[in-house]
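Show me any protein, fold above all:
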Amino acid sequence: MPLLVDTGVLYALADRRDAWHRHVVAYVQESRQPLLAPVTILPEVAYLLRERIGPEAEHAFVSAIARGELSVEPLSTRDWTRIDALMATYPFLGLVDATVLAVAERLKLDTIATTDRRHFHAVRLAHAPALTLVP
């Protein structure tokens, strides 16, 4: 089963100075699950890598995707309908977080790799009474 990841986790994997870096790296190495990212998080990750670390980090991220180290999940029309409903129900959710949740729900995943405990803990999805947030 894939490990659904959000922006913070992918950023933390790349930035050794990030407070989450050691925890995220250890968890990803231990779990050995293939990483899965909704397509919508990619521009956010790329922007953060370029702005905070540099263009080489952004390019390394793209290369990792090209090598298949990270699978990218497209969004369906059904996902967009669910994203709309999630954002209406939970006004604190932005587009990117809502897409992570919609993909989790569609794929019936109850674990999300995230550094954002505040938003993801507050949401209830149709397929799971509560989400497991890792690391």
Q: What stands out?
A: The mean pLDDT is 95. The chain has one domain: 3-134. The longest strand covers residues 35-38. Residues 77-89 form the longest helix (13 residues).
